[in-house]
Amino acid sequence: MPRIRDGSVLAGAGAIAFAVLTVAAIAVGGAPGGNYVEPDVATYVSAGHFPAIIVSGYLAVFAVLGLICLLAYLREVISVEPGRKLAASIFWGVGLASAISMVVGWGLMTGIGVAAAEGGSAASVPHPETYVLSDTSVNVIFGSGGILLGFALIALVVGSRRQLPGWVRWLTLVVGILALGTPFYFPAFAIPIWGIVFGVWLITSGPRIAEPSVPLPS
To answer: Residue 39 is inside which H or E element, if any?
Structure first.
């Protein structure tokens, strides 16, 4: 079975970039979320933390760009098999909606720090309100974005029965199911792990097209 070579390296790099840069953006940005901690909120809107917020925003945007590269390639992988055009379109639509939710969530989250820096003391808001805005933005990323990505991964498993090996499909299915619980934060750890593993597999091996059977002469 010949490998689907066109774009597999770019898609693999995109998957790895999505995983690594998303984790880096979370670590660098340090946006308040989960349990309310007053010092964390104060640090997030402080002038000294503003450069870190800008860096985290760029990291997040590049991470989503990597995800879009991956989704575009996988759409082509699904559509290679006859009768899978609709499945490919559903996967692409749900996946793209996930990417849009994520980048919008990151924009809202970094916007809190930008507004605090540009407005200064005249635009300051109580820390509890800042926390609510930040946690809401986190929920856009891990809530709608994570859940939609989970459905996209499940659609990938259903639509690519012949192109992906069994272990890749099972891994993707498990991570897709876990991603449906990303609003609770804990299952979100599986997504970066999947991105790295899937990306390395795409670069080193990648999907393959089953050769059509040739009828024997009568």
So the answer is: helix 38-44
The answer to whether position 56 is within a domain reads: yes
In a domain, residue 174? The reply is: yes
- Determine the pLDDT at residue 129: 87
Give the separation between CA 162 and CA 155, rounded to whole angstroms.
Answer: 14
Residue 210 inside a domain? The answer is: no
Q: Is residue 217 part of a domain?
A: no
Domain that holds residue 183: 8-204
Residue type, 45: V
Q: Which two tokens stand for residue 194?
A: 């999947």
pLDDT tens profile 181-202: 988 877 888 999 999 999 999 9
The C-alpha atoms of residue 117 and residue 91 are separated, in whole angstroms, by 39
Asked whether the beta carbons of 181 and 173 are under 8 A apart, the reply is no
| Tokens 């917020």 -> residue | 53
Is residue 107 a contact partner of residue 134, using CB atoms and an 8 Å limit? no
Q: Which of 155, 184, 56, 19 is nearest to 97 (CA)?
A: 155
Predicted confidence (pLDDT) per residue in 81-129, tens digit: 777 889 899 999 999 999 999 999 999 999 888 888 777 766 677 888 8
| Domains in the chain, number | 1
Of 118, 119, 135, nearest in space to 127 by CA: 135
The C-alpha atoms of residue 88 and residue 179 are separated, in whole angstroms, by 20
What tokens appear for 40 in the block? 């964390």
Terminal-residue alpha carbon distance, the chain: 25
